[in-house]
Amino acid sequence: MAATRIDGKQIAEQMQSALAGRVQAFAEQYGFVPGLSVILVGDDPASEVYVRNKHRACAKVGIRSETTRMPAETTEAELLAEIDRQNADPTVQGILVQLPLPAHLRQDCILARIAPEKDVDGLTRQNVGSLFSGGQGLVSCTPKGILELIRRTGVPLAGKHAVVIGRSNLVGKPVAMLLLQEDATVTMCHSKTENLPALAASADILIAAVGKPGFVTGDFIKEGAVVIDVGTSRVEGKLRGDVDFAAAMEKAAYVTPVPGGVGPMTITMLLENTLEAAQMQQEAAR
Known about the structure:
The protein is α/β, with parallel strands linked by helices and 286 residues long. The protein has 10 helices and 11 strands. 44% of the residues lie in helices and 16% in strands. A 6-stranded parallel beta sheet has the order 1-11-8-7-5-6, sandwiched between helices. Strands 3-2-4 form a 3-stranded parallel beta sheet, sandwiched between helices. The relative contact order is 0.16.
């Protein structure tokens, strides 16, 4: 039997519809709508598209959004000063610095300057530390979206073996921690992992986040597994994931497509994080 395609676009639309109601309730309670500020340095075409999509999604659920555009030659001191200004601005509940930054700007230094309570990308050390220690904080959008997609399959995570291929700070490590919090048994794999296909094929939940199109073949997939494809590589003008989708559909129980799987969930989790940030800031101000 062919696998069920996990429709991330449809799930994202359902969640955004519910978020619109939550944003309206927040506005009625506190007298304002949450505000998201995106800082865009330079004129990278892909970044322009991503930022435009984020603003459209914000408008859809009723979140106020704005973009601060800064030239590519912006100095680190100038960018840090702008982040400081927005940290102090009570009309801004969420701050997102669009990545990648120009090469002369130190990404770690820039991200660390964002106030943790406004860090809707969940990338500051305080929010990452909260995730790893089981505390309260804002969780990185893509891993949060991945967990929601798995939940929507109805497959219980407790006791299941999850294999994560990729150990990045953006996806691999945080999604492993989220899976552990759900009582899954997690194996993290990377470029130096031995017997990778056999390890992957033991997984009830397989998450591929390596950025190599078609890397995960049918040999990597256990019969009846849940397969989440995080990869997005452009090949001959088309987006391709890390997973051989046709092979996965023959063996797995559930598979995310590329595009239309994890991607729409990432923006949806950004919207949810902005609302959650606003709520936490209001509670802290009491």
